[in-house]
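Anyone up for a design puzzle?
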């Protein structure tokens, strides 16, 4: 099942996407600036092979719901995310607010 819902964090609009897959869930919250995602996100690919796209993104692992993704510390972030003040260890919610 795929679920796409609007999400507001401190009045700022985002889109939450949850995809139920066999034995796992794919989770993402995004806006027009960037996104955070579950462990399926390949940050190294974004930083190395897609660096010209300047993608602002972060990855959190061990999350099973959108609520978990918002509360979890980011394990890895892209170089472009760091330029926006988004760093490893920051919660998903705080990172999204930096993208707003």
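Challenge accepted. My sequence:
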């Amino acid at each position: 099942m795929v679920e796409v819902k609007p999400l507001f964090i401190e009045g700022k609009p985002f889109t939450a996407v949850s995809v139920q897959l066999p034995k796992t869930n794919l989770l993402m919250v995004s806006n027009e600036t960037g996104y955070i995602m579950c462990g399926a996100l390949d940050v190294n690919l974004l930083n190395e092979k897609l660096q010209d796209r300047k993608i602002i993104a972060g990855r959190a692992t061990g999350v099973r719901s959108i609520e978990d993704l918002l509360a979890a510390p980011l394990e890895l972030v892209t170089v472009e995310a760091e330029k926006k003040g988004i760093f490893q260890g920051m919660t998903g919610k705080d990172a999204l607010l930096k993208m707003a």
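A detail worth pointing out: The longest strand covers residues 12-21.
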